[in-house]
Write a structure and sequence with these properties.
The complex is a heterodimer.
Chain A (H helix, E strand, L loop, with lengths): L9 H4 L1 H18 L27 H19 L3 H39 L4 H22 L2 H6 L3 H15 L4 H4 L4 H15 L10 H25 L5 H14 L1 H10 L4 H29 L3 H11 L3 H11 L1 H15 L1 H17 L10 H7 L3 H50 L2 H7 L4 H25 L9
Helix pairs in contact in A: 2-9, 2-19, 3-4, 4-5, 5-7, 5-19, 7-19, 9-19, 10-11, 10-14, 10-16, 10-21, 11-12, 11-13, 11-17, 11-21, 12-13, 12-17, 13-15, 14-15, 14-16, 14-21, 15-16, 17-19
Chain B lengths: L1 H24 L5 H12 L36
The chains are: A mainly alpha, B mainly alpha.
């Protein structure tokens, strides 16, 4: 194997480092107070315009009426006085800006930031910008759809809408070249993951108690190892990245773990798309079915809560299932899931190392040198870990829980946007034929169902041991 | 080309129909699925949250000392 070279220029020429710079800058802006509030879409029931951040200050009906009035008046006056026309146009612009300003500012900020990166990486930023603009608009539509009250209640989030809208465009009119130029899915995912690192706090995790740790941390690696061997040895699945993505998604925390693992092992876009799709469908099924099962078995609130928290993939669905089962169970379920969230970084790091040193290596090739390992290692993982360490061990003691929370309340919105942009990009770059190819033989679904079943049984056993009064005193 | 645009239009229409259909049918759903849905709407639970920070204001999940979930569950340190 030819040894690759790594140099200082990588710091401004490679995407992995730019993901760290983007994430670091946005975190710095949020920490220093330069960015005080990142706009978010709101919830809506029947009027999608209610989702827009500025709506509360300036209702759309008023904006439309004002806009029409200005157009009519300016048309009437244009022949008399151009200055007045210009004035009316100015007012129109200002009103529109007030209405869309939060979103526009967010767009401008992200566009400027990522374009600087594109320029530094010597990429064609003039082609990138129009594509990015359109992807931002599609991402906004995805967010609006995800914020509809029914979609929120069912757990149909922005990830599935973003993927769906991207796939819809690519499989109908085809993704035009100018749009593809803005689809920098890996750059968006890596940046989102660096920002996610800040949200993974583990400084105080040990003080939560042994029962939660047993359920969240002992079952998870066991399920990953089981699914790895089941997928690669028993099912003989050729795509190892796909097996590890599904294993991580099933055992850790669904979509976010799938994204982190896929980036760590450089999986194909179709593999991530399929894993995310399967995870989201089964999450909805489990959110409804698991509490009913827990009731049918007659589990105590503590054991049932730990079971739900350890098995259902996304946090939102865990909270919903927990509340449906028992109010006390919801608390246990949420805490177990939070402890499990902490494993995202660890799993991504281990997968990245395993891929560079073992899985992705030619077995006949000589052992790679440390420099070769460093060259091939996905550097943004270091940004992820660094963000987690800085927030857990430096900012938390300095600023306390309230201070860190106020920063995370801003960075988590940026992280969501980067993931959303990534999913739109992945959808635009994928097609149904490739996705169908991944499903041939039904092995992915068999892997998920068998793995999840194993997870359900093992977590039930661990929850009974830890929360059933066997190893520890009962907590509630 | 026109056919492709028509397909896109139909696709977008399907998206709107899925949202509208789910919105109008969900409250009437029987059984556990219906109960879960109604509970999530009544209690404003965002089931789309991927990780805990997305489930609400982060302050709700951390104490002043930065411990997870003390407000959620009174588990004593082991």
């Amino acid at each position: 194997m030819e040894e690759q070279k790594s140099g200082w220029t990588d710091l401004w020429l490679k995407e992995d480092y730019w993901a760290i710079w983007f994430g670091g800058l946005l975190t710095l802006f949020a920490s220093s107070g330069i960015i005080e509030k990142v706009p978010k879409f709101g919830s809506w029931i029947t009027n999608p315009l209610m989702a827009f951040p500025a709506y509360a200050f300036f209702p759309i009906e008023h904006a439309i009426v004002t806009f029409l009035l200005i157009i009519i008046l300016s048309k009437m006056l244009i022949f008399k006085d151009n200055l007045i026309f210009a004035l009316f146009c100015g007012i129109t612009f200002i009103l529109l800006f007030i209405f869309f300003s939060p979103l526009l500012l967010l767009y401008l900020g992200l566009a400027i930031l990522t374009t600087i990166g594109m320029m530094a990486m010597k990429e064609n930023w003039k082609q990138y910008l129009p594509g990015f603009t359109m992807i931002f608009i599609i991402s906004s539509v995805s967010y609006v759809l995800a914020n509809q009250s029914t979609m929120k209640a069912w757990g149909i989030g922005y990830a599935i809408w973003a993927l769906g809208l991207g796939l819809l465009i690519s499989n109908t009119i085809g993704t035009p070249k100018w749009l593809l130029a803005g689809a920098r899915s890996e750059m968006f995912i890596k940046t989102g993951l660096v920002l996610l690192g800040a949200e993974i706090l583990f400084s105080k995790i040990l003080k939560l108690g042994g029962p939660g740790l047993i359920v969240a941390w002992m079952v998870t690696p066991t399920v990953i190892i089981f699914m790895w061997y089941f997928g690669t040895r028993f099912l003989k699945m050729t795509s190892k990245p796909f097996v590890i993505i599904v294993a991580a998604a099933t055992s850790v925390c669904g979509v976010s773990a799938a994204i982190a693992t896929a980036a760590a092992c450089r999986a194909k876009k179709e593999e991530l798309t399929l894993a995310v799709g399967m995870t989201m469908i089964f999450t909805v099924i489990m959110m409804v079915g698991m509490p009913a099962l827990a009731k049918a078995i007659g589990l105590s609130p503590a054991v049932g809560g730990a079971w739900l928290g350890g098995t259902i993939d996304s946090t939102g669905a865990v909270v919903a299932a927990g509340q449906f089962f028992d109010m006390e169970a919801e608390k246990i379920a949420a805490v177990v899931k939070m402890i499990q969230n902490v494993l995202i970084g660890f799993v991504a790091f281990v997968v990245a190392v395993a891929w560079v040193t073992k899985v992705d290596r030619d077995p006949d090739a000589p052992r790679p040198s440390l420099m070769e390992i460093w060259y091939r290692f996905p550097k943004f993982i270091l940004g992820f870990v660094l963000a987690s360490v800085v927030f857990s061990f430096i900012l938390m003691p300095l600023l306390g829980g309230d201070g860190v929370s106020s920063i995370l309340n801003q960075t988590k919105v940026f992280r969501g946007w980067f993931f959303c942009l990534a999913f739109v990009s992945i959808g635009l770059e994928s097609n149904f034929r490739d996705l169908a190819g991944q499903l041939v033989g039904g092995k992915p679904i068999i892997l998920y169902i068998i793995g999840q079943s194993f997870n359900i049984f093992l977590t039930l056993f661990a929850a009974w041991l830890a929360f059933g009064g066997i190893l520890f005193a009962e907590v509630i | 080309m026109a056919l492709r645009w028509l397909k896109l239009l139909l696709g977008l229409l399907s998206v709107a129909l899925v949202v509208a259909g789910l919105h109008w049918l969900s409250p009437e759903l029987p059984g556990t699925a219906g109960k879960t849905f109604r509970q999530n709407v009544e209690r404003d639970i965002d089931a789309t949250a991927l990780i805990y920070t997305e489930a609400g204001d982060v302050r709700e999940f951390l104490t002043r000392e930065g411990r997870y979930g003390i407000q959620l569950v009174p588990i004593e340190p082991f």
